[in-house]
Amino acid sequence: MSQNPPQLPNLWRLTWLDVDPSRREFDPAAVASIVRALPPADRVPAPGTDWRLVDFWYDEMTAALVDSYGPWVVGWPYRVEMEDTAEYGRIPAWRQENPPITAPGEVLAGIADAVVAWQGLLTELSTDPRSRFVPSSARAIEDDDGVPRAWRVVMGPVKRLVFPQHPRLPHPAGLSWAEVDPARRRFDPETVPAVLAGVPAAASVPAPHADWRLIDLWLETVTSALVEQYGTWVVGWRWSIGEGDLDGGVVGAWCCASHSITTPEATRAAVAASVVEWHDWLVDLAERFARFLPLPGDLPADDALDGWERAVAHLVTAVGDRTQYESGWYGCCRTVLGWFLTAAGMEDRERRDELIAHATDGRFASWVEPSRADVHSVAERLAEQVVRAGT
Question: Residue 234 is inside which H or E element, if any?
Fold first, then answer.
């Protein structure tokens, strides 16, 4: 399999002239045999194949279909219905639905059926006989330029795109303090290179500019092996500074595939250094938390406020310095504040998120170091809410 993705037409940029079913001959009965004869058809993935490889294969099949039928067929995996929304009224909802991977014959038959259904949908859009897309009260079928109104409606600027959901490893921002607290585990940084050396995927790396799905699969395979060895906390090794893999983090030893994937040996070394750097940051955070916790519960209100304000201001500054106030740094800041509130005894995550959002929303921005006044304002606001809530 090539590491470069097929170049497919962009469905959302096609015009009615590109898809108009009256401009071509189409024999539904011939589709199944044409699909079976396409070059990728003899490489149907086996059941259980990772979804990224399946998705890549479907792109190869779509490219072959385009070669056979033309750009219009690129929409074969999609279905569209009109949905009522509170914000935008009635809008089109497009759903991508690839056939499930089962026996090869069933998969290819599913593709053929979907191609026929796509042709049928385009035919329906040309006249909208059931008024599914344009209200019957506006029954001019076409605008003056000959473009069906139904096509204009479903391809308009406001639409909902629904894609298949796949299981993923958690983002480090979604982890709890219990999951990342270094006091709950033993970690020997000297073991990381050996662990990586034992991961088959780490022995060969994708090209830095390979298709994103192949890179994503490699990264998740390596990360899954690290999680199996060390625990979920280790997913943060990719939370790099700035616009890296996960955006707005604290890790400097890893950036992203295009910069950090080189030779297998150098790439493994970069991953190992990133794991250690992430762990060291968590140790550093735990030490900072310990400077302020536990906060005495019997303090007068003013003293309690002062303690919380100093803690929050200190943590905001620490995160800002570590993230270099780069892209999305405030997301890491909110995560750290949430972990601190957890360590202080606030167990209700929804309540924590609400307090932090109220204190920080609109106060921080990417690539901008906040003023001392802004940091103090955030610290003061969060402290007041926490003290009022009684932690």
Answer: none
In single-letter form, the type of residue at position 331 comes to G
Angle between helices 264-292 and 212-230 (to 10 degrees): 50
Span 62-77, average pLDDT: 98
Confidence of residue 2 (pLDDT cuts 50, 70, 90): low
- Kindly state the DSSP code that residue 167 receives in the 8-state scheme: -
Is there a contact between 323 and 329 (Cβ–Cβ < 8 Å)? Answer: yes
DSSP 12-53: GG--HHHH-GGGS---GGGHHHHHHHSGGGGGPPPTT--HHH
Q: Is 219 exposed, middle or buried (0-12, 13-18, 19+ CB in 10 A)?
A: buried
Q: For the chain, how many residues are written?
A: 391
Domain ranges of the chain: 11-162, 172-389
pLDDT digits (tens, 9 = 90+) for 300-343: 666 778 999 999 999 999 999 999 999 999 999 999 999 999 99
Share of the chain above pLDDT 90, in %: 87
Q: How far apart are CA 149 and CA 139, in angstroms?
A: 9
Average pLDDT over residues 69-88: 97
